[in-house]
Design brief:
Keywords: Cell membrane, G-protein coupled receptor, Glycoprotein, Membrane, Receptor, Signal, Transducer, Transmembrane, Transmembrane helix. The structure is a single chain. The protein has 511 residues and is of the alpha+beta class. It is 44% helix and 14% strand. It contains 12 helices and 15 strands. A hairpin with a 7-residue loop joins strand 14 and strand 15.
Length: 511
């Protein structure tokens, strides 16, 4: 029997019937109720017996509630006035359809369901095994169903007796094999063991668990936090003006543009000097303007991509570079024509004068403008969210729209650069002390090397580093043209003025 100590069970609700405690122990009531005649000196109140405890009755208490429910129903029917009742069309209820809802003096709510059955209420009982061998059953809670709160289980944990060997243990016994898995993990049942035995395994990458036994994937623009118990928005990455790389590239871009403007200022101030006039000053100024635009167009690649910035960055880059290469090509042709013109009986210079030079630059540039226009009309670049390169972040970038259009722009630039390089190589051995063709050859060599290495680097670079590679190629090739073509001239103008004479420029090397 001691093993049954601590048993929990339910019993019919026990309650107190007001006035019954004073009525039942009185001898007249006992005799009138059919009981045997007593001496009249018995004191039932002092007897500690389960069967004599008439203050808390079970079956009798339910009879008491039934009688009161019937009484409340009759009272409501008697006081109901036709036309003012609580039912449809303000009618009064019949006894069969009447449903009561009241509270007893003991605090219990009495109500009925749709079928007319009383909503149940039970006591939760705990069986205590006392040290002296006696037993005691005590009420430790209740389980009930009410019309307002639904089903409820109310327990007083402090009153419950748990039958442990160690009397120091006061906590409830564990009735599970494994604890509930914490957030961020999911259950994996152990083979060959009861269903309540399982291991808690962390959720896999990209999934979370939140009040669930399974790990669920996040939305494509979200990623789990470190605990994997909730999804948070993925960070958005692009080359911004706040990034260290963005600041460095923007600084070099602005410095390059300032260098081109300063060089143009030096050339304009010394525009009447022989070295400026001998190198086709009109094409030189146009080349400096195009180089300034080349430096500045790299700024359009920095910042969050948008519909307009994506179209601007590629078209501005393509057109300004073709303008730049066209000017270099024009200067190369001028050098060749100028040398041919020095030969006896030659009149080729009239076929490539300033009007022809302007027309050449405009024609080559117009072709690139036409390519860019077709690209923008047919399938222009546009901003996208790249969700595939990295799982844990979003890359904002410009999609090419039409890859054919992009590579057509690059291909045309490469074709002009190769043509210019070939002409410069042909003219590199001209016997002038100041050989323009050699400088153009070296600048085109740097230009072609930069853009040849750009292609594999551009294709293989992930995320925002694709933009970094493109900006680096623009700046490197622009600085190459700037330094190779104009640095020697500026050095002579500023630091070697004795060489800035017509006599020096027209002198020939000894063979």
């Amino acid at each position: 029997m001691p093993y049954l100590g601590g048993t929990l069970g339910i019993a019919i609700r026990r309650g107190e019937i007001p006035g019954f405690r004073e009525f039942a122990p009185a001898p007249p009531g006992w005799v009138e109720g059919g009981g045997p005649l007593c001496t009249g000196q018995e004191e039932l109140e002092n007897k500690d017996n389960e069967f004599l405890d008439i203050s808390n009755l079970r079956s009798e208490y339910n009879v008491y509630k039934a009688v009161y429910a019937f009484a409340h129903s009759l009272d409501n029917m008697l006081h109901c006035k036709p036309g003012k009742g609580p039912f449809s069309e303000h009618s009064c209820a019949t006894l069969q359809s009447l449903k009561m809802n009241f509270t007893t003096p003991f605090g219990d709510q009495v109500s009925f369901d749709e079928s007319g059955d009383a909503l149940p209420i039970y006591d939760v009982m705990n069986w205590l095994w006392l040290p002296d061998g006696s037993t005691k059953v005590q009420n430790v809670g209740e389980v009930k169903r009410s019309a307002f709160k639904g089903e409820e289980l109310i327990l007083d944990d402090d009153k419950i007796f748990w039958n442990f060997k160690s009397k120091k243990v006061i906590y409830p016994p564990r009735s599970v094999c494994s604890d509930i898995c914490p957030l961020g993990t999911h259950m994996v049942r152990r083979k060959g063991e009861p269903e309540c035995c399982f291991d808690c395994i962390p959720c896999s990458e990209g999934t979370v668990t939140n009040k669930s036994t399974d790990c669920l994937p996040c939305h494509k623009e979200f990623w789990p936090n470190s605990k994997r118990d909730t999804c948070i928005p993925k960070p958005v990455e692009f080359l911004s003006f706040q990034d260290i790389l963005g600041i460095i590239l923007a600084t070099f871009s602005v410095l390059g543009a300032l260098l081109a403007i300063i060089t143009a200022g030096v050339f304009f101030y010394h525009r009447t000097s022989p070295i400026v006039r001998a190198n086709n000053s009109e094409l030189s100024f146009l080349l400096l303007i195009s180089l300034t635009l080349c430096f500045l167009c790299s700024l359009t690649f920095i910042g969050a991509p948008s519909e307009w910035s994506c179209m601007l960055r590629h078209t501005a880059f393509g057109i300004t570079f073709v303008l730049c290469i066209s000017c270099v090509l024009g200067k190369t042709i001028v050098v060749l024509m100028a040398f041919k013109a020095t030969l006896p009986g030659s009149n080729v210079i009239k076929w490539f004068g300033p009007p022809q030079q302007r027309m050449t630059v405009m024609s080559f540039t117009f072709i690139q403008v036409l390519i860019c226009t077709i690209w923008l009309v047919v399938s222009p670049p546009f901003a996208i969210k790249n969700l595939t390169t990295y799982k844990e972040k979003i890359i904002l970038e410009c999609a090419l729209g039409s890859a054919v259009g992009f590579w057509a722009v690059l291909g045309y630039i490469g074709l002009l650069a190769a043509f210019c390089f070939v002409l410069a190589v042909l003219a590199r051995k001209l016997p002038d002390n100041f050989n323009e063709a050699k400088l153009i050859t070296f600048s085109m060599l740097i230009f072609c090397a930069v853009w040849i290495t750009f292609i594999p680097a551009y294709v293989s670079s992930p995320g925002k580093f694709t933009v970094v590679v493109e900006i680096f190629a623009i700046l490197a090739s622009s600085f190459g043209l700037m330094l190779c073509i104009f640095a020697p001239k500026c050095f002579i103008i500023l630091f070697k003025p004795e060489k800035n004479t017509k006599k020096y420029l027209m002198s020939k090397n000894q063979s």
